[in-house]
Design goal:
By secondary structure, this protein is an alpha+beta fold. Helices cover about 30% and strands about 20% of the residues. The protein has two domains: about 10-230, Immunoglobulin-like (Sandwich), CATH 2.60.40.10; about 270-555, Glycosyltransferase (Alpha/alpha barrel), CATH 1.50.10.20. Helix 3 runs parallel beside helix 5 (about 355-370), helix 5 (about 355-370) runs parallel beside helix 7 and helix 7 crosses helix 8.
Length: about 575
């Protein structure tokens, strides 16, 4: 790192990249010729590349087109501050930029820059695509420029070294005679067809009938590679669905497919978990740091490990590795418990977070269910959650529903630690009176709590009312939009998610009406809502949806019956497979 006045970063992109169209490579590179100073009136050199003066001299083929000609990080000077170095320029005929930074004693620094341009009388440039794909037909070739002060007649030759990967169309001659006026550029293109993938070497040469003043041939030649890439797979989904006993699907074959490539791929499974590889990898590999992210990771992983033990052929993850990950993160969460009983967002925080503390209570319930050790102080956690509830439920009439939502979330956290007592049930019934003012997610939480009390009928009636408002479209169902949760703080805005409400409804239906026909349709919709990266809006949303789908799998996929798959075309059975 240098502290230099008037020192500027080098614009390497402008220097090393040629301003060309995306569809072609045009290299203005020549190796023999004069070198001129640029940016200085003094000519730096007047060097002409020496070649044999023999008239039979063969054309030199240029193929070394490196961008960086020379670099030396430590070059020592003599006692006069001078240093000598030498190097061989690549075959590029272009503008070369020489940059020098000098460092001396007593904090003395210096910077120098010079440019040279390399030219030659006759120049050939490739006119090629950046790459081709198997099956492509395209025009490519070269351009040739006469840089002399007289007209030239040039014999050109084109050679292809490709082992059959690239072929020139029949009838086209690879040897041509071109007439070039002074300063004129002509382009010669050929029609090619890529026959197979691989690397191709194309060589273009040109020799003028006229000799220079020393009797040497005026010529140029270049050899450049061209990559023939395989055709990338293009997948089209023909049909998808699910079955209970049997089902038959019509496969619609696209009209624009290549008949010489590809095929049809059929995937069948007795578990919806096969479609969840991306979100599972996301939860395992995400660089978790804060408490919310750690909780979002652990909740579904506990379900997944349980399901992996029962369906190892479907979930291709190590149960032992999952257990190690879960236990390490549980120990990490234990260290985040504050002295007031709540849990901190970060270890460096000096205060607890109410909503994350409630999520920890749910995690504690899962740990008891799956047999994990989670030695948090539940008594202090219970006291903390109670302390976060409004002291009295007797605020002004138009403000009661906002405090109802805050209290409701606290009661949900307590339900994961202890059974609701009479006071809590009374509080729930008071909140129920304001159910129409609650957001959708809050109403579903309320019904989940009432379902555990003697007032289950109230919860069931309200559940049916919510289900009657759900949007039905073909084989999926979903909520059109979710109401905002006004009392949720800004940093918990991600709780206001329509997908979160749909995940909560799945869990509630599994608990209250496990055979409800809406359940698989809700699951199907949530899976269709995954983004291109294979996950949902954020870590919390991804975790909550996987949490609901895991409960669905435990209920609907307990039976792993065998099944038979067959494929027919034009009434003829191609194969049959029993699984």
């Amino acid at each position: 790192m240098l502290s230099l006045r008037e020192y500027r970063l080098q614009e390497l992109f402008d220097v090393f990249n040629i301003n060309a169209k995306n569809s072609a490579i045009i290299n203005d590179n020549r190796t023999k010729g004069r070198i001129y100073s640029r940016g200085s009136q003094t000519r730096v050199a007047n060097l002409i590349a020496e070649t044999e003066s023999d008239a039979s001299h063969e054309t030199m083929i240029r193929q070394d087109f490196r961008k960086l000609a020379y670099y030396n990080s430590t070059l020592m000077t003599d006692n006069k501050g001078r240093a000598k170095f030498s190097f061989t320029l690549p075959d590029n005929c272009t503008t070369w930029r020489i940059m020098v930074v000098a460092v001396g004693e007593n904090n003395l620094f210096g910077y120098g820059e010079e440019s040279i341009v390399v030219k030659q009388p006759l120049t050939i440039r490739p006119v090629l695509p950046k790459f081709a794909r198997y099956g492509d037909r395209f025009n490519a070739g070269f351009s040739i420029t006469n840089g002399t002060e007289e007209s030239l007649i040039v014999n050109t030759t084109s050679n292809i070294l490709s082992d059959g990967a690239l072929e020139i169309f029949q009838g086209e001659s690879t040897q041509n005679l071109l007439k070039l006026r002074t300063g004129e550029t002509k382009i010669k293109l050929f029609s090619f067809e890529a026959k197979s993938e691989g690397s191709v070497q194309l060589t273009f040469m040109g020799t003028a009938k006229t000799k220079d003043e020393k009797g040497r041939s005026v010529s140029d030649g270049i050899s450049v590679p061209l990559t023939i890439r395989p055709i990338p797979p293009v997948e089209k989904l023909s049909c998808a669905g699910e079955m209970v006993d049997s089902v038959s699907y019509q496969i619609n074959v696209p009209q624009d497919i290549r008949k010489d490539l590809g095929g049809v791929e059929i995937e069948v499974s007795n578990s919806i978990l096969t479609t969840l590889k991306e979100p599972l990898d996301y939860l395992i590999e995400y660089p978790y740091g804060c408490l919310e992210q750690t909780l979002s990771r652990l909740k579904p992983l506990m379900h997944i490990r349980y399901l992996a033990n029962n369906k190892p052929e479907i979930i291709n993850v190590s149960s032992a590795a999952l257990k190690d990950t879960i236990e390490k993160n549980l120990k990490k969460i234990v260290l985040l418990q504050h002295e007031d009983g709540g849990f901190k967002y970060w270890g460096s925080d000096d205060f607890s977070d109410k909503y994350l503390s409630i999520d920890v209570a749910y995690l504690y319930k899962l740990c008891k269910q799956y047999g994990y050790s989670f030695p948090v102080d539940t008594e202090k956690l219970t006291e903390y959650i109670i302390s976060q509830m409004p002291i009295e439920f007797c605020y002004e009439e138009n403000m009661k529903f906002k405090y109802s939502e805050s209290s409701l979330f606290s009661l949900y956290g307590l339900s994961n630690l202890t059974k609701p007592d009479d006071c809590e049930i009374k509080h729930l019934l008071q909140i129920y009176n304001y159910k129409d003012s609650l957001c959708l997610l809050a109403r579903l939480k309320l019904l989940a709590l009432l379902n555990k009390t003697p007032h289950r009928k109230k919860a069931l009636s309200e559940l049916h009312e919510i289900c009657n408002k759900i949007k039905v479209k073909e084989n999926i169902v979903y909520f059109e939009e979710s109401e905002m949760w006004d009392s949720i703080p800004f940093e918990r805005a991600f709780y206001n998610s329509k997908n979160l409400a749909e995940a909560e409804l799945i869990k509630l239906l599994l608990e209250m009406e496990p055979d409800n026909a809406l359940i698989p349709k809700l699951v199907r919709y949530l899976i269709s809502e995954m983004n291109q990266e294979g996950r949902w809006g954020n870590t919390y949303e991804t975790s909550s949806i996987l949490d609901a789908i895991a409960f669905y799998c435990k209920k609907y996929e307990a039976d792993t019956s065998a099944y038979t798959l067959s494929l027919s075309a034009n009434g003829k059975k191609l194969f049959q497979l029993s699984l």
